[in-house]
Amino acid sequence: MIQQTPPLLYSFRRCPYAMRARLALYMCGQTVEFRELVLRNKPKHMVEISPKATVPVLQLSDGQVIDESLDVMLWALAVNDPALWLAPQLGTKDQMMTLIRRCENEFKTHLDRYKYANRYEDADPAQHRSQALNFINELNGRLAETPYLFGTRPALADYAIAPFIRQFANTDKEWFTQTPYPALHTWLDWFLKSDPFTAIMEKLKPWQPEDEVMYRF
Ligand SMILES: N[C@@H](CCC(=O)N[C@@H](CS)C(=O)NCC(=O)O)C(=O)O
């Protein structure tokens, strides 16, 4: 059921985890009290309710805290799933979850060591970029069969994975454009132009405690 008292969301515009949480909240039509932040200056309240201090953080009106992006997506879609993101045209929710977990484990590991090589001792960005292509190549294979990862309409896996592929593509756009994955390029273009994505990328000023309450979605 849609929550009558809007939950509170801490978010950061450019974070791929926060993006996918916002995508699901937008899609399910759940209004939230919205607080944009900057990672180097996290609001005290956010750290109090979620000491691991990563975005996104969603706090429901009964005080319950959901601070894993995939859990926020699943919570939102359990409220309302108008586009059937949890029931893909091909395959199952469990198969989508397996692919999503691989994105955030193996692919994200290489993405971070490619994009932020200086944060990791001995990380060779070229090697990690090339290892990341295993996952990209696999997605491209699926997308050569059907326009979306699980069939003829977009579902949870597309929206949960695309923010990370966008980050990978943006790290060196010129190089990425010439990689031989046409189906994946078409899919990424679709995502970047999609209504949910453009809606959730609105630019907002970081929240200050004295600000008026702001609602979104
Ligand atoms: N497993 C978490 C990961 C979230 C995450 O790592 N978010 C990053 C930003 S993209 C963050 O908040 N990092 C903390 C920091 O940089 O201080 C989730 O899925 O929500």
Question: What does this protein look like?
Answer:
This protein has helices spanning 16-28, 44-49, 69-79, 93-115, 125-145, 156-171, 173-177, 182-193, 195-200, and strands spanning 8-11, 32-36, 57-59, 65-66, 215-216. It has 217 residues and is α+β, with helices and mostly antiparallel strands. It has 2 domains: 8-82 and 198-216, Glutaredoxin (3-Layer(aba) Sandwich); 93-194, Up-down Bundle (Glutathione S-transferase Yfyf (Class Pi), Chain A, domain 2). Strands 4-3-1-2-5 form a 5-stranded mixed sheet. Strand 3 and strand 4 (65-66) form a beta hairpin. Helix 1 packs antiparallel against helix 6 and helix 5 crosses helix 8 (182-193). The longest helix is centred in the middle third of the chain and has 23 residues, at 93-115. It is globular. The mean pLDDT is 97. Glutathione binds next to helix 3.
Q: How are the SSEs ordered, and which strands pair?
A:
Elements: E1 8-11, H1 16-28, E2 32-36, H2 44-49, E3 57-59, E4 65-66, H3 69-79, H4 93-115, H5 125-145, H6 156-171, H7 173-177, H8 182-193, H9 195-200, E5 215-216
Parallel strand pairs: 1-2
Antiparallel strand pairs: 1-3, 2-5, 3-4
Helix pairs in contact: 1-3, 1-6, 4-5, 4-6, 5-8
The protein binds glutathione.
Residues 15, 17, 39, 54-56, 68-70 line the site of glutathione (GSH).
